[in-house]
Design a protein that fits this description.
Blueprint lengths: L6 H9 L6 E2 L1 H8 L3 H10 L6 E3 L2 E5 H11 L24
Antiparallel strand pairs: 1-3, 2-3
């Protein structure tokens, strides 16, 4: 995928790809809604999405992205379940 690919194209490719597909850091940032520096920091501290190292490049398998999202998503049935903004505690492991 080239650097001119827009977010909608990245997401479409992701959703239409098989579980063993590989994605680069830029693509994963779009897919999970995080910044590239956040992904780099999480790769460094071992708390991010599992990745494959190919030379100097990190590649993320779709299956690993899906599993990570499933394990880290906050699930709600209604917006009324959201905690009030003033009571939300910043999670240092969730910065970005």
């Amino acid at each position: 995928m080239n650097s001119n690919t827009n977010k909608a194209e990245i997401r479409a490719e992701y959703y239409n790809s098989p579980a063993d597909s590989l994605f680069n850091t830029r693509e994963v940032a779009v897919i999970v809604g995080r910044s590239i520096p956040w992904l780099h920091a999480k790769a460094h501290d071992g708390k991010g999405i599992p990745f494959l190292k190919m030379g100097q490049t990190r590649k993320y398998r779709k299956a690993d992205i899906e599993l990570w999202l499933d394990n880290h998503a906050k699930r709600y049935k209604s917006t009324s379940q959201y905690p009030p903004a003033e009571s939300r505690v910043h999670d240092p492991d969730d910065s970005g």
